[in-house]
Amino acid sequence: MKGCLVALGILAGLMVLVAGYVWLNIYHIDVRYRLTVEVQDGDQIKIGSSVIEASYSIQPDYLSAYPSTYARIHGYAPTVDLGEKGMLFLTFSNAMRSTEGQTERNKQIFCPFTDIGCLPFAAYHETAKSNDSGEKQSSLHKLLRNSGPREVSFIALPELARFVNADGQHELVQVSPYDLATSFGPGVQLKRVILELTNDPITPQPQMWPRWLKDSGKTYVGELS
Known about the structure:
The protein is about 30% helix and about 30% strand. The chain has helices spanning about 1-25, 100-110, 115-125, 135-145, 180-185, 210-215; strands at about 25-40, 45-60, 70-75, 80, 85-90, 150, 160-165, 170-175, 190-195. The N and C termini lie far apart (about 55 Å). Residues about 15-25 have low confidence and may be disordered.
């Protein structure tokens, strides 16, 4: 009986050691950045800015047969208030692109993550890797050595959108970064989107958001409860 208890104790100890080893080798690398969206509205420049954070999972290659291309986003979508014309959101969703648009995007940006996860790599012209945990970790550390504001190419942007009221329901409608005027009226155009790595606190939920949006739970514009 005593021998069985000793064996069980050794087995339990080994299990704890294995679990601890795995736990210590699974972690996240966080990339925090400020996104600033500038929109020309007639003779005025309207600005929306938000600090968000992308968390990239790092785990041993033996735990998964597939590379992890998911980046968890913390924060809220940059929002430009255009008054009666509506609000422009730079969402966390992938942009819908034509085949030609996707091909051109892939030529300019080598990145396996979602659009919002690729954004800092695109801004600093760094190559993102996810083939194995070592390469992924190395590409993220290289990215984090950058500094200063950078303009982001429109072709790299996640979905730009506005909400419209259709039959009493608020629906998100994609907006082309090359043609805001069709959705918001003459004289409205996207001037630029600027990204800058930062240690500033994550921006809280925009006060300008209407109550229905704050309560909606639409995760593609932020961490809503």
